[in-house]
Amino acid sequence: MYYDKLIFDLSTEGRKGYTLPKAEVKRYDLPKSTYLRDDCPGLPEVSELEVVRHYTNVSFKNFGIEKGFYPLGSCTMKYNPKINQDMANLPAFASLHPYQPIDTVQGVLKVYHDTQTWLSEISGLDTFTLNPYAGAHGELIGLMIIKAYHRDRGDSKRTKIIVPDSAHGTNPASATVAGLESVEVKSNPDGTVNLADLKAVLGDDIAGIMLTNPNTVGIFEKDILEIARLVHEAGGLLYYDGANLNPLLGVARPGDMGFDIMHINLHKTFSTPHGGGGPGSGPVGVTKALKPYLPKPVVEKQGDQYVIIDEPKTTLGQISHFYGNIGVVLKAYTYILSMGREHLPEIAKYSTLNANYIKESLKDVYQLPIEGICKHEFVFDGLKDKSTGVTTLDVAKRLLDFDVHPPTIFFPLVFKQTIMIEPPETESKQTIDHFISIMRQVALEASQEPDKVKGAPYNTVVKRLDEALAARKPIVKYKDLETN
Amino acid sequence: MNIPKDLYYTETHEWVRIEDGFAYIGITDYAQDSLGEIVFIELPEENDQVTQFSEFAAIESVKAASDINAPLSGVVVTVNEELEDNPELLNEDPYENWIMKIEIEDKLELNKLLNAEEYAEVCE
Q1: How far apart are CA B97 and CA A78, in angstroms?
Q2: Which of A88, A167, A319, A435 pairs as cysteine with A171 (C-beta 3.0–4.6 A)?
């Protein structure tokens, strides 16, 4: 295909596809200076049509939520309503500058403050900061707050953080970056935290525990109140990983379960764009006792004025440029407002219903390791019939041929052939039935024509990739790709 | 699953072979099979002190990243540097391709390891 080359390779000298708007300021010649460049920058010279064809062709190579079903477990790939984008694009927001005088930005500060307040109400935590840029950033800030809290109590022995074996990989990674050592606790066969194992590691060297609830196999930690009691009694704090908040919205609150600190992924639960389409936002919520540690700047309401408090006494300091990703906050604000208090619980209920419906519809052909009601996601341990040698990887690749984004695979590691399926509430019954029929067809093919599944995909831009070669000898430069 | 009779094992899928008073250490067939194609290994260095059941190396496959624990305490004498460029050797023959050779600190630690029969039960 011609137009999916790099746009620089489409460049022809002298070609032009733009017109600049009329200047609103007087013409001004820059003084001669050694800082002025001699040549024009190497920007591509292309016509408008070439630009359109190039980006349209490139976009066909991508798969996104707007192209098809995207049941990626623990990622909550829900549809991002266009109204979110419209609101964030309003010139009154989009043209603001962070250095504007405070009395000229009262509107956006109200949005900011309302969002903080609503997240508190939804989660049961006392106060939120919207500064962190992403979930993992939120985790790091949260762990730094836990460390600072223990340090200020003169308790320097607490250097370890408990992480279940089914935790998101970011949890132990954030712990390491925060200078804490992670200690793993085992799961019960039903995926929940093993209390005996937990008790065995609790002690005066434990700073806290990081939990996802429901956990990464989609099971609600029914012992959460007991876990909170045990950890608090041992002097530790509870951190809630908000990746799986979707099935709790308006139904249950981490704050009520005993969590002291949490992050929320606005780009998962609150329908702002995700992954490469970000940027993200990972607000962190804390109990009253931890509020002084929140990073700055802090937005507060004093009387009927919104103010920015730049120097709270014991703050961790600044962890983002200005206030975080305001555009993302605006989108989440719009989403919460459009759902309203009465419809937020439906998100939880429909996502949970969707997951259980798929699970029950497929468990005769895929191995279900944990029976019973799941929340918004669940795991299969590969195909039920393992005699053909068709693995979870093969199933995932074959799904690509049917224009379905594969679920999360080989995570969590508590099972060998994990397929983690999360169908958000934004999917209709027709879409979900279609997905079920595709999953059944792949299972049937696996038993009748296993080699076909093992060779998939066939209909994609690139076929089966050599993942090992890509990891061992990666080609990281476009130029090297051409010569290879 | 290949579990040679003459080796000692850990529950975390490492093996140790005692030869001329030294311990040769690697990962088991079960470990390489579970990991899938191995793409990277971070090796220890000579003279490093390793501790029984503590991490001494890290390994990455197309599926997962994992720590490798030392079955015995001691000082690293030799590292199998061939693995650095060819980590796939661990997939090809995990028992022939040992990761490191150490000087054994305390032979009594062997009592805490599993024999082939006990390890086979762990793998079930």
Answers
A1: 47
A2: A167
- Please give the distance of CA B105 from its chain centroid, rounded to a whole number: 17
User: Three-state DSSP class for A245?
Assistant: coil
Question: B19: exposed, middle or buried (C-beta count within 10 Å: 0-12, 13-18, 19+)?
Answer: exposed
Mean pLDDT of A204-228: 97
What does the alpha-carbon distance between residue A251 and residue A382 come to, in Å, rounded to a whole number?
Answer: 31
* Angle between helix A170-177 and helix A135-152 axes, rounded to 10 deg: 50
Say if CB A162 and CB A186 are below 8 A apart.
no
The answer, yes or no, to whether residue A483 has pLDDT greater than 60, is: no
Cβ of A471 within 8 Å of Cβ of B64? The answer is no
With an 8 Å Cβ cutoff, are A416 and B34 in contact?
A: yes
Topology, domain A83-338: Aspartate Aminotransferase; domain 2 (3.40.640)
Distance from the Cα of A367 to chain B's closest Cα (Å) equals 18
Q: Which residues of A touch B (CB under 8 A)?
A: 410, 413, 416, 467-468, 471-472
Convert the pLDDT of each residue in A25-46 to its tens digit. 998 888 877 788 888 888 999 9
DSSP string, A310-322: ---TT---B-SST
- The nearest alpha carbon in chain B to A413 belongs to B64
Mutate to test the interface with A, among B1, B11, B35, B63 (most CBs of A within 10 A): B63
- Domain extents in chain A: 1-61, 83-338, 343-471
pLDDT in tens, A287-312: 999 999 999 888 999 999 999 987 76
**Chain A CB contacts of B53 below 8 Å:** none
Residue pair B73/B51 in contact (Cβ under 8 Å)? The answer is yes
**DSSP-assigned letter for residue A295:** P
How does pLDDT run across A127-183, given as a tens digit for each residue?
Answer: 999 999 999 999 999 999 999 999 999 999 999 999 999 899 899 999 999 999 999
SS3 content of chain A, % helix, strand, coil (to 5): 40, 10, 45
Domain B8-107 has CATH 2.40.50.100: yes
Mind telling me how many Å the CA of B39 is from chain A's nearest CA? Answer: 5
| Contact: A471, B34; criterion CB under 8 Å | no
Given the candidates 1.10.580.10, 3.40.50.2300, 3.90.1150.10, 3.40.50.720, the CATH classification of the domain at A343-471 is 3.90.1150.10
Give the pTM: 0.90
Q: Where are the domains of chain B?
A: 8-107
C-alpha distance from residue A356 to each of A71, A73, A376 (Å): 13, 14, 8
pLDDT digits (tens, 9 = 90+) for A248-286: 999 999 999 999 999 999 999 999 988 665 689 999 999
Task: Please check whether residue A412 is in contact with residue A392, taking contact to mean a CB–CB distance below 8 angstroms.
Answer: no
- Residue A8: the pLDDT is 92
